Automatic annotation (TrEMBL):
Chain positions covered by the region annotation Disordered: 470-489
Source species: Stachybotrys elegans
PANTHER family in UniProt: 24-HYDROXYCHOLESTEROL 7-ALPHA-HYDROXYLASE, CYTOCHROME P450 FAMILY 7
InterPro entries registered for this protein in UniProt: CYP450_sterol_14alpha_dmase, Cyt_P450, Cyt_P450_sf
Gene Ontology molecular function: heme binding; iron ion binding; oxidoreductase activity, acting on paired donors, with incorporation or reduction of molecular oxygen; steroid hydroxylase activity
UniProt similarity note: Belongs to the cytochrome P450 family.
Name of the protein in question: Cytochrome P450
Length: 574
């Protein structure tokens, strides 16, 4: 009920708390890591100085609204100002109407933020998102709460879920997923350029969209099997449509304000239910317990998830579909655009493009297998070789540094506690902004005086340390001096993330560090390798710009459509 003012205010507050606050990478993490999250018994940081001080508030707020107008106008700039206000070690409060949060910044404070597992939690938020964004029926949503035993330890089932996620998206099974993704992506791309087009330029008005479409298809095929797509031919564009308005669902806006989003959500849930029924009817779990991939459920992890849902007592069809939907969203909404950015960055930089293309076409990353059927040699890109390449890794890290902007939000759930000597009260909220840290001059290097590479510019070699060049590497001089000679004796440039633990945080960190990060990295690098090995691609319009309106939500998409042309490479006949 409540007054009508409250009705307008509440969604706004929820927006700020959930929409802006709960970054997709974090949601991703929460949903993947999901139920496990809450209560690992780790050492407490119960403060010895109980009289610790309260953190300051950023001046320049206006009455009633606080910093809300500044936040809506330019969130990125507000976050940096708060971070810098009295220095990075001091959490600073900003007020967004009736909601306020402390901004935490600087590598040391961020390390404490990620280590603080007892007092800070994000769990309750992810439960709300299950309902608001993914359409889990209200009466079932409590089933998704992490189970704990009477003495506060994670229940056994939480361990099983955790294990399944860890094992499913990393280690040896990662190889299966990678190979599957690579093959499907090539197949999907080739499906759109028939033989007649070979050697002819095709104009593309939205390269980002095109890459998204194929990456999504390959990803869904890899994770959920072949029937998710064949039973639901429009699922890619439905997903796209849904994601356009996902922000308003995260906000918890009332249904009359988001009719389009809700319609797309129901359509997605119906599609996923169709897949669930089809798999149940046609595939018997017990027969295939050790297969890594099969067409009905897709990868083994997805199959295990279905069994774990049953074990948890989540039997309602829609609740199960909501969970599968959340997983689909988590594995696509951010890594898809990130994969596309990787390609766009390479295409924008002629020298970089030539270098990578050259290596690809000369077979540096390939293993050659001869096919007995066609008596032809088949060149296969070898993911292991790609992943070991220092330059590709640096482009990957730089792409995420510049194109991902997440806000990681935690709430003091247990009670008052001391955070780095500052008193935080129960239910207060702490936030870190990945972009603020990614732009921090006190940590990052910016090349040398002759060849500066400012932090707002993409520098493909930012993460390469060249022992012969004192201006190379991601850290600035002061930080580097502290971290002397990490890899002395190394001859050429090498990829390095040393000293960046609290500064490069596109995947969040600590307990909720995104478990999908290894696969996301492969997905990004492989996408560019597959596209460039099959096609000549050239950008034909102006350079892609990032759309900062999506600040706080994860991978920010390009602001305008990216025009390009592409042409199928004519395979070498040898
Ligand atoms: C936000 O502020 C930053 C500087 O803090 C600036 O670089 C950026 O262009 C601004 N963005 C918008 C949309 O005004
Ligand atoms: C999905 O939406 C989020 C939030 O607006 C955005 O950051 C992301 O790039 C979108 N992803 C796709 C695949 O459109």
């Amino acid at each position: 009920m409540g007054s009508s003012i409250e009705q307008y205010v509440r969604p706004l507050v929820q927006y700020l708390q959930l929409g802006r606050g709960l970054s997709p990478w974090l949601v991703t993490t929460m949903l993947l890591f999901g139920w496990f999250a809450i209560s690992k018994l780790l050492k407490t940081t119960e403060s010895s100085s109980l009289q610790s001080k309260r953190p300051p508030t950023l001046p320049s707020g206006i009455p009633i609204f606080g910093h809300l107008p500044q936040f809506l106008w330019n969130g990125s700039s507000l976050m940096s100002r708060a971070a810098k206000y009295l220095g990075p070690a001091i959490p600073t409060k900003i007020k967004l109407f009736s909601f306020s949060t402390y901004i935490v910044s600087g590598p040391e404070s961020i390390a404490s933020f990620f280590k603080e597992n007892l007092y800070l939690s994000a769990t309750s938020r992810s439960i709300v998102v299950m309902e608001n964004a993914f359409g889990c029926p209200h009466e079932h949503v409590d089933l998704f709460r992490p189970r704990v035993t009477a003495d506060g330890r994670p229940d056994d089932i939480e361990h099983m879920i955790h294990r399944s996620i860890q094992g499913g998206l990393s280690g040896p099974r990662l190889e299966t997923l990678t190979a599957q993704f690579q093959a499907r992506l090539a197949e999907s791309l080739l499906g759109q350029t028939d033989k007649e087009h070979q050697g002819k330029w095709i104009e593309v008005d939205d390269l980002h969209g095109l890459v998204q479409k194929h990456v999504f298809a390959a990803m869904v095929h890899t994770l959920f099997g072949s029937y998710m797509l064949s039973l639901n031919p429009t699922i890619a564009s439905d997903f796209w449509e849904f994601n356009k308005s996902v922000r308003s669902l995260f906000m918890g806006l009332p249904p009359w304000m988001t009719p389009g989003a809700l319609k797309m959500r129901s359509k997605m849930l119906e599609s996923i239910k169709r897949w669930q029924r089809h798999a149940q009817e046609n595939c018997n779990f017990d027969d295939i317990s050790d297969m890594d991939w099969e067409p009905y459920y897709g990868c083994r992890h997805v199959r295990e998830r279905q069994a774990l849902l049953t074990q948890r007592g989540i039997l309602d069809e829609t609740a199960r579909a909501a969970e599968n939907f959340a997983f689909m969203w988590a594995t696509n909404s951010n890594s898809g655009p990130a994969a596309s950015w990787f390609l766009l960055e390479v295409l924008q930089d002629h020298q970089l493009k030539e270098e990578i293309e050259g290596q690809l076409l000369q077979g540096h990353f390939a293993s050659v297998e001869s096919s007995s059927l066609t008596d032809q040699e088949i060149v296969c890109i070898d993911p292991a070789k790609l992943m070991a390449d220092p330059l590709l890794q640096s482009v990957y890290a730089e792409t995420l540094r510049l194109r991902v902007a997440v806000l990681v939000v935690r709430e003091a759930v247990r009670g008052d506690f001391s955070f780095c000597g500052w008193q935080i009260k129960k239910n207060e909220v702490l936030t870190i902004s990945s972009r603020t840290e990614a732009m921090d001059q006190t940590t990052w290097g910016t090349g040398g005086p002759d060849e500066p590479y400012p932090l707002h510019k993409f520098w493909p070699r930012r993460f390469l340390v060249d022992p012969a060049d004192s201006n190379s590497g991601p850290l600035n001089i002061q930080k580097r001096a502290k971290k002397s000679s990490a890899a002395e004796g190394s001859s050429g440039p090498y990829f390095s993330m040393d000293g960046l633990a609290g500064s490069w945080i596109p995947y969040g960190g600590g307990r909720s560090l995104c478990p999908g990060r290894h696969f996301a990295k492969r997905k990004m690098i492989i996408t560019t390798a597959v596209v460039l090995s099959l096609y000549d691609v050239e950008l034909t319009g102006s350079s892609p710009m990032v759309d900062l309106n999506h600040f706080g939500f994860g991978t920010m998409p390009p602001k305008y459509k990216v025009a390009a042309r592409m042409r199928r490479r004519v395979p070498n006949k040898s």
